[in-house]
Each structure stands twice: as C-alpha cells, then as structure tokens.
Amino acid sequence: MDRLLEFLATGILDLRWWQVVLATLALTHVTIAAVTIFLHRCQAHRALDLHPAVAHFFRFWLWLTTGMQTRDWVAVHRKHHAKCETTEDPHSPQTRGLRTVLWRGAELYMVERAKTETLERYSRGTPDDWIERKVYSQFIWQGCGLMLITDVLLFGALGIAVWGVQMVWIPFFAAGVINGIGHYWGYRNYDCPDASTNISPWGILIGGEELHNNHHTYPTSAKLSSKWFEFDIGWFYIRALQILGLAKVLRLAPVPRVQPQAGPGHGQIDLNTLQTLINNRYDLLARFARELQREFLQELGKLRLSEADRPRFAGLKRWLRKDVAALPPQQRATLQELLARSPMMRTLIEMRAELSTIWQQSSVSREQMLVGLQDWVTRAEASGNRALLLVAARIRGYLPSAA
Q: Angle 158-172/140-155 helices, nearest 10 degrees?
C-alpha cells in the first residue's frame, strides 16, 4: 500500500516540481507546434506538405491534447479569413469585443464548428480516412481521457494539474489570445485590409502565431516572420523537418527586391512593373504610410492650431495608416478638417487612395491598369512632394522576385 501511495504521489518519472513545470511547458509546446505547423500552415493554407508519418503524429497528438478534429478547425479558420472583421467572422474582436473573444474564444469556436454550412463550404481537402471517421471524430473525449491517464502515470498526482494546463492551453492562447489580441493590439508591418497585428516580434510562446499581421498579409506563406528582428519558431521547426526530408515548403511571402537609386525616368513602367507592384503592394503601402506620417508631423507644425485643437489633430497620426473609410466617425471628421486646411495632405491622401485603386480594379484589363499606374507615377514625380517622389522611386525600383 505504501508503494502504491508513493507511486501515485510521484508517478513513473518521479520528478521535482520544477521539472514537472518544464515538462508541462514542453508538452504544451508540442501542441502549439501541431496547431501552427499541421492545422494552420499545412491544412488550412496549404503552405507546406508534411510526410504522412509527421502529419499523423500531429493528428494523434491533437486528439490527445485538444479533442479537435482537423476538418472543424480548418473550416472555422478559413471562414475567419474569408469573412474577416465582419459580423460573419467567427471570432473578430472588432465586431464581438476583445473581452468576449479573449475569454470565450473556445465557446465561439464550438458554436461555429456546429454549423453544417461552415463545414461543408470551408473544410475541403482535410483528412477523411478511416481513423479520422471511426476514431478521432467519434471518440472525442476519450483522447483527452487517455492523456489524463498518461499524465497521472508519468507525474503522479501532479499529472492532474499537468493535464489541466494542457486542456486550457489552446483554448486560451489560440482561440483567445491570437484571435483576440492578434486583431486588436500590437504593431503592423503591413497595411492589409483587416485589423490584424503582430503581438510580439518573437514568435516562441505560441509557435510563431504572434506574427499575426504578417500572416494575414500573406496567409499562404509557410514562414510568418518577415523583418530581420522577427523570429518564428514554427518556421525553425519546418526548416528542420525540411532538412530531414519530412516537409516540403510550397509557398513563401514575396521578399521585395529593389534596385537602388531608382529616380524619375529611371526604368520603364511596363506590365512586369505592374505585376511586381501587385506582388509587393503591402510593402509599398506600409512605406507610403510611414512617409505620410512624417509629412503629417511636419505639416502639423506649420498649421496655426489652438491649444484645444492641437491634441485632437495630433491624434490623427496613428489613424493615417488606415483608409479614410475605415476611420471612426470622430477621427474622420477631424481628418476632413485637416484636409481642408492642408492642400498638401489632401493630395497625399487622395494619391494613396488612387494608388490602391489601381490593383483593386477587377473589371479592367491589365493594359488599362498599366495606363493608370503610368499616369500615377508621372503625376507623383511631377508633384515635387518628397513622399510621393519616394513612393514613385520605390515603384520604379521594384525588381521581379527571384525564382
């Protein structure tokens, strides 16, 4: 009896408390890796292919630690991208509120996965073999129950706490933090149409999913980091699998290649330029936004503003990265006041809107889009404005992506 009680207290591994903590973090990290590599990048976005043995290990591990089925998760996530920041988005904090998504993210997921139309429309291409139909989809709680038994055998009584952490890790960090904070707070490298943000430049705790703005800009990229200071641990694992012949990367985000000192009249604006611009449009818009903010700060110093108006106008700086239509009513009204006082700022805002329209015209031919781009660059270079000259030079300097 004493030996039995001792075994129940310590488990097979007989670890110290801090070793149990490290083991718990390691186990939850495997789950995070399974979500970001298998469910997200491989299944939902087809950014890479995995060796069948690796793919099935991830499926089995997710059955043990989350009870999630690949079909359900992929369908809900694809709908999130298709309906992002609208009322049909399953978990947008912009429409449902940050607190709701952060603390009830798992509940929102369960509601959406129960919708037949969501599964039928967005789950194509996910595993539908015998083990998926007869085991993983039918015996959902049994996988988590098997994980509980395993944890107790390995860690003794502390195994219950280990199991509890495993069960809440994905619902909180993936369903809550990424879907909530990742669309509400953080920094943005790219001005993609939704509200996605990078929570942290170091994607370690959540497998690289912290780089959420990068992902929403280039959703089919297997690599989520894009700046030199960003680190995506999920990509590190993918590269390791690739070296071992266990993964094949299918798509990566385009890396801008720019010819230095491209000025007015340098190079021809042709169809190749147009295509390269379309591929790098988010890079260009981000640079345009930074130049627009610099011009705004200089212009603000020239305007004769009252002490009451200065803070109100200065608050526009963070909103200048967004399209005018996306601004809240109060900021939009303040911006209109600014544009009425500053012809230069009006020109910059209007020229940015025109530039975005060039590649958004689905009803016109490539030749017509090219004429629009050539006209835009000509007017930008003739304006003499520093920001427009830099943007025009960037357009002329873009080189086709390396093969």
A: 140
d(CA 308, CA 312): 7
CB 152 within 8 A of CB 116: no
Query: pTM (2 decimals)?
Result: 0.85
Q: Shortest CA distance to 154 belongs to which of 3, 2, 19, 1? A: 19
Cα–Cα distance between 125 and 43 in angstroms, integer? 8
Q: If residue 336 lies in a helix (H) or strand (E), which one and from where to where?
A: helix 329-341
Rounded Cα distance, 398 and 262, in Å: 9
Q: Which pair of tokens denotes residue 203?
A: 């994607």
Distance between CA atoms of 127 and 67, rounded to whole angstroms? 15
Cβ atoms within 10 A of the Cβ of 134, count?
A: 10
Express each pLDDT in 78-136 by its tens digit: 999 999 999 999 999 989 999 999 899 999 999 999 999 999 999 999 999 999 999 99
Q: What is the DSSP string of 341-365?
A: H-HHHHHHHHHHHHHHHHHH-TTS-
**Alpha-helix residue ranges (DSSP H) falling in 201-270:** 212-217, 233-243
CB 282 within 8 A of CB 188: no
Alpha-carbon span 385 to 388, nearest angstrom: 5
Q: Hey, where are the domains in the chain?
A: 2-249, 271-399
C-alpha–C-alpha distance, residues 350 and 327, integer Å: 15
Reported as half-sphere exposure (CB side, CA atoms, 13 A), residue 205 has a value of 12
pLDDT digits 0-9 by tens, 142-162: 999 999 999 999 999 899 999
State the chain's maximal CA–CA distance in angstroms. 90
Give residue 56's identity as a one-letter amino acid code.
Answer: H
- Segments in 196-308 forming alpha helices (H): 212-217, 233-243, 271-279, 281-302
The amino acid sitting at 234 is G
